[in-house]
Structures
1.
Amino acid sequence: MSKATIFKPSLLDIAPNAVEKLKSLKLEECDDSLKLRIFVTGGGCSGLQYGFSFEGTVVEDDTLISRDGVDVLIDSMSLPYLVGSTVDYEQGLMGSRFMVANPNSQTTCGLTLIHISEPTRR
């Protein structure tokens, strides 16, 4: 009889490119307490959309995820949609952006999820 494999999903992974960009944005703002908030909103036909903002405070229903000196906040309503995802940052000819790679996402109406480029400060 074979032994069962135990799988522990991560809440959210923060890719090295995203960590480095978040560190540089914190330096630009001269505020080490800033945290990246990732949230999910309804997007109609295109499904869910991801949003990003910078915040300095954690509220009661937030989940705080830390990696290599940066913090990410996810509210309780958005968390179930983001479990197992990876936050990354990419730069290319078309510009730069934070993005969420979500293995659980699906496309609808021929569109994929929308990724908002830069976090805004709330």
2.
Amino acid sequence: MIRHAPSIGLGLGLSLRSDVLGATGPLDLVSGASAAYSTRALSRGWVAGDVVEVRRSSDSTTQDFTAGQIANGDMAAFCGVGDGFISTWYDQSGNANDATQSTTTSQPKIVDAGVLITEGGLPAFYVDGVDDRLELTSAITNVGDFYVGYVSVIEETSGLQAILGANTNTNYLRVSDRRWQLYSGTGAGNTGTIAWSAPFNSRYLMSFNRSGSSVTAQLDGLAAGNGTNAADITTFTKLFLRSNSTSQLWKGNVQELIIYKSDQSANREAIETNINDYFGIY
């Protein structure tokens, strides 16, 4: 596995279309991410870095792949006519906080019967809403101000769906039919309602930014709700699941997740313009 620290310093004013491998990524624009995961390279410094480890269904062999090896068909060829599952989603922030899953039945699927899963024509993986989730190598702790940007399809379910969670029910960020919630375990967690502008089963860029006790939500670059959260989050330890229980699992195709443990109000537009330039969401 090749690891490269993100290269920084191209300036917030730059945002070129990043559907060309090696173009500017969000981590080039804004440094200091706590964790960053994607099916693409998120910085020029990660072009040769692995973005996923995949387990093939035929014999459970695993192999690492760069974004380029996903795009050029190497990963699908490795899986053959079978399925491929994410065993590790590599952290590109430079903090080596990889998201992993050793339980094979809980690994999200990225190749289905020899065919790469895509969303909007770009690589994605499917989280089934039943038992799929990933565990962070290291807990993200003492989360005060933060920014979370997330590219995914939301498939409609009867329950809430968690983006980030912890080992207990006391810390999580989740969304649902017409509301989203940041919960810190103090009873001061309900942060407002998102007015969804499009139906389920479509891809969105969602973001959440906390500055002091104020939390704002954005949906496809537009304000989608705001609220308050008086207490800091203690810990995030997992993706796509609220807690160790099997409740509130995410369901849908996923492509990118970036987490900053800092207020990114001033940089949000630059980050999200870059994300949208690549994924072409809105």
3.
Amino acid sequence: MPSLRILAATVLTGTALLTACGGGDGDTAGDAGGGTEIAVTGNDTSCDPATSELAAGKTTFVFTNKAAMVNELYVYENKKVIKEVENVITGASKKLTVTLEAGKSYTLTCKPGQSGAGFSAAITVS
């Protein structure tokens, strides 16, 4: 039956496309994390990591939103976004995992309300 083969091919193609579109931006509840975990609190006026001195390697930022609005966390390397987590509602937490390299400059930026420049904290990696 040719129509059964066409249907099967369509289903397999659709499944492959959906799998390929899976996020890698840390914006999922399923971010497995790994490496060193660092708490980051974002509120209405600041972005506060538990520490700003980190070792190189895999790091998971556990971002908790204490702002009155939805918040986001961005990891910048020299003004370029390398990873982000979006749509974190007030009182919720999400994980964001990145690999940090020694000697590079990183900045964490929280954006309450998901707009504007936000509030930043410099990170030193050794």
4.
Amino acid sequence: MFLPVILTAEGLPHGLRSIGTAVPVFMLVGLGTNYMLYIWYRTFPVNKLARTTGLVAICALMILSLIQAYRAYFVAWAQDSRTYEAYSET
């Protein structure tokens, strides 16, 4: 799935060619998050406050990441005039 993105002759990787890599990337993110929680819970097997704090911290980071990605894609990138030029059919 990475080959069309890597071997493109246009210079920069094209977003439409890289759509097939979304599933493996999300799987890696999920596995990494699961592993972090596993390590955190193994470190604090009994302390409920520490376990809850770790879970809340990871969820807060994921929510902040979601907000940042939303603003970067739907606000900043969508309003850029170069985006319209890149995807126009002229």
